[in-house]
Amino acid sequence: MLIKNGDEYQGFEVKESSESEIVLKNSKSITLNLDKDKKTYFTDSWYFQTSDEGKGSTSPQGYIIYPAKELSSPGNYTLRGFPFDTNETLSDGFGWNAATFGGFNYPVNKHKDFVASENWWGERLQYVEKDGQNELGNSNPGNHVIGEEELVYSTRPFSSKYELVSDLELNANTTPKELGGMFYYKLPGLENRMLPLETTPPSSQTL
Fold it and tell me: Based on the number of CB atoms within 10 Å of its own CB, is 173 exposed (0-12), middle (13-18) or buried (19 or more)?
């Protein structure tokens, strides 16, 4: 199955699909449950958890928000993302990467590339205000509605060296041509599933 622009995936619509990046945005607005005991799902297993209303640092009606993901194997447990306070966070500050959300693929040896501000690899989840009205953040801390296309999930492929290349300590000159190079590409996707690209790198490989 190929991913292409316009495809729907668990409440998201594919907006960009290329060999370098896939971008999905929520196709419907999301109203957050401001209740510490309730979850607001935005995929089948990813959700936003908040504090009760008014539990932000300075209120009025501000709150804490973070993404989370449920896993059932092995055993039942929850992966949580970094929490943000709507009283203190600017509207463009609600974002998570592999270092701030345990639900994302995170190869620790590639940390530098996964948290880079530019030319980054891996996954990102970001709130992006579209119209300047009812935005999340300190200008309107009580707002708990994420508008259509304001929740953006992006994923970019990252390279991994073939085990054979590492084991035999091969380099660009000694790597067999049949291997197609020293590296192959992995593309992390929602819920750690592979999102195939419409045009994939020739050495692309699923997770």
Answer: exposed
For residue 115 the two structure tokens come to 């948290």
Distance from C-alpha of 127 to C-alpha of 92, rounded to nearest angstrom: 7
CB atoms within 10 A of CB 190: 23
DSSP for 117-151 reads: SSS--EEEEEE--SSSSS-SSTTSTT--EE-TT-E
H/E run at residue 164: helix 163-167
Beta strands 95-96 and 84-85, pairing class: unpaired
Given a contact cutoff of 8 angstroms between Cβ atoms, the answer to whether 104 and 122 are in contact is yes
pLDDT band at residue 183 using 50, 70 and 90 as cut-offs: confident
pLDDT at 29: 94
Averaged pLDDT, 80-96: 96
Element spanning 111, H or E: helix 111-114
**What pTM, to 2 d.p., does this model score?**
0.82
